[in-house]
Design goal:
The chain is α+β, with helices and mostly antiparallel strands. It contains 12 helices and 13 strands. It has 2 domains: about 180 residues, no CATH class; about 180 residues, no CATH class.
Length: about 400
C-alpha cells in the first residue's frame, strides 16, 4: 500500500483519462448488473414447476359429435377407452391446460359482500384430474362428490374446490392451512375449500398470479373438450398415437390440438427464453468490450509512463512492485467506478421495477457483480502490468535522454 500516495498524485496530475475510465466502469456496471439480473429473472421463470408431471403428460383437444344431452356419456366412454390403452396410467377431462394461453380468470374473495381479494385461474374436471396432473396435496383432502355436469363455465355450479398453496397464502397470509374447510367466493358464488395442492400454474405464463389456480369437480360438455393423459416412462409417443387412433374411429371427429406438456411449456416460455439468451449475450459482449477497454487503458498508461517506470526500476524497484503498482491503480479506479455504478444501477432498477414489475436487485447481487467487475479489471490489467515490469531501466533512461 506504499504506492497509494504516488498513485493518487499521478491520477490527480492527469485527471481526464482516469475520469473517463471511472465513468466507463460505472456505466458498464450499471448496465451489466441490470441486464444480468433481468436475464436470471427470465431464466428462473423457465424452471418454475407447473405442478404437472411434465415429462409424461400430453393433452388432446377434440370435438364431441353428439347432441348436448349425450356428450357426458361420450366423455365417459372416451376416458374409459383411453385409460385402457397400453402405457396410459391416468386420463381425465379438463376445461383447460396450464400454460396454453387459453383459460378462465376468476375473482376470489373471502367475504360475500366484499370486493375481490385476488384473481385465479380455473380448471374443471373429473375426480381423477389431480392424479392425472400429478398434483401433490399438501392440506385437506380430495373431492368427495360425484362430478357435476355443465355445458360451460363449470365454476358457476361448483360447490367444492381445491386451490393452490399460493392462492391460499394470498387469502390467509398468517396461516394458509386454515383455508381448508372455509367458504370462499368465486365470482360472488360460495364454494367450500376441501384441499390445497402444492403447485398448479394457470393458463398464462406471464400472469403475475400464475401460481393461483382453482380446481372443481365439474365436467364441461361443450362442443370441444380437452383430454389430459398421463403415461408411463418412455410410453408417451405410443400412447399419443393410440389415443388419436381411437378418437378418429368416430365419424366427424377432429383433432384440433395434440401436444406434450414439454412442448406446451417450451412454447409458453419462448419469449422469456429468447429474452434471457439475448440479455446473457449482452452481458458477455459488454464484459468483453469492458475487458478490452481496461486492457487498452492500462497499456496506454504503461506506454506513457515508461520513463517513470525506468526511474523506479533504476532506484531499485523490483518487478513485482511495478506489477503491484498498476494492479492497485486499476483496483482503485475500478472500485470508484463500481461505487458510482451501484448508485446508478439501483436508480435504473427502480425504473425497471415500475416498467416491467421486476423485484429490486438484492444487495448481494450488487456485491457479487462488483467483485466480478473488479476481477475482470484485474485480469485485463495483468498483461500490461507485466509488460511494464519487463521494461529495462537502462533502455528507459536512454530513451528519456533522447527525448
Amino acid at each position: 500500500m506504499r504506492d497509494l500516495l504516488p498513485i493518487l498524485k499521478t491520477l490527480n496530475y492527469s485527471r481526464t483519462a482516469p475520469s473517463l475510465f471511472v465513468l466507463q466502469i460505472a456505466l458498464t456496471f450499471m448496465i451489466l448488473v441490470n441486464a444480468a439480473y433481468m436475464a436470471l429473472h427470465k431464466h428462473s421463470l423457465l424452471s418454475r414447476p407447473s405442478g404437472l408431471d411434465e415429462q409424461h403428460t400430453f393433452y388432446v383437444l377434440t370435438n364431441l359429435t353428439s347432441e348436448a344431452t349425450a356428450r357426458a356419456a361420450d366423455i365417459d366412454q372416451d376416458l374409459l377407452a383411453i385409460r385402457n390403452l397400453p402405457g396410459v396410467t391416468s386420463a381425465s377431462v379438463t376445461s383447460g391446460v396450464p400454460l396454453t394461453g387459453w383459460g378462465r380468470l376468476l375473482e376470489i374473495a373471502t367475504q360475500a359482500d366484499s370486493e375481490y381479494d385476488t384473481f385465479s385461474g380455473y380448471y374443471g374436471g373429473d375426480n381423477s384430474l389431480l392424479d392425472t396432473m400429478g398434483l401433490e396435496l399438501v392440506a385437506g383432502e380430495g373431492f368427495s362428490q360425484t362430478p357435476l355436469v355443465a355445458e360451460t363455465d363449470g365454476f358457476r355450479v361448483a360447490t367444492e374446490i381445491i386451490i393452490t398453496r399460493a392462492l391460499a397464502q394470498a387469502l390467509y397470509p398468517d396461516d394458509w392451512r386454515q383455508v381448508v374447510g372455509q367458504t370462499i367466493y368465486i365470482n360472488k358464488r360460495p364454494q367450500q375449500v376441501r384441499g390445497v395442492v402444492k403447485t398448479l400454474q394457470a393458463a398464462w405464463s406471464f400472469w403475475v398470479v400464475v401460481e393461483h389456480s382453482v380446481l372443481a369437480p365439474v365436467i364441461e360438455t361443450s362442443e370441444y373438450v380437452y383430454y389430459l393423459v398421463r403415461t408411463e416412462q418412455g410410453q408417451q409417443a405410443e400412447a399419443m398415437a393410440q389415443t388419436v387412433d381411437y378418437l378418429m374411429l368416430r365419424h366427424g371427429r377432429k383433432i384440433e390440438e395434440l401436444q406434450t406438456f414439454d412442448q406446451v411449456k417450451q412454447h409458453s416460455y419462448q419469449a422469456e427464453y429468447s429474452a434471457s439468451m439475448t440479455l446473457l449475450w449482452v452481458v458477455v459482449g459488454l464484459s468483453l468490450v469492458t475487458a478490452l477497454g481496461v486492457f487498452g487503458q492500462a497499456r496506454f498508461a504503461v506506454t506513457r509512463r515508461r520513463r517513470q517506470i525506468g526511474i523506479r526500476r533504476a532506484l531499485g524497484a523490483q518487478k513485482e512492485h511495478i506489477v503491484g503498482y498498476f494492479m492497485l491503480e486499476n483496483a482503485l479506479l475500478t472500485a470508484l467506478g463500481i461505487g458510482l455504478g451501484c448508485i446508478a444501477a439501483m436508480l435504473l432498477n427502480v425504473q425497471f421495477s415500475n416498467w416491467f414489475e421486476l423485484a429490486v436487485v438484492p444487495a448481494e447481487f450488487l456485491t457479487i457483480g462488483g467483485a466480478c467487475m473488479l476481477l475482470l479489471g484485474q485480469a485485463a490489467t495483468l498483461a500490461p502490468a507485466f509488460r511494464a515490469a519487463s521494461v529495462s531501466p537502462a533502455i528507459t533512461t536512454r530513451l528519456g535522454e533522447l527525448r
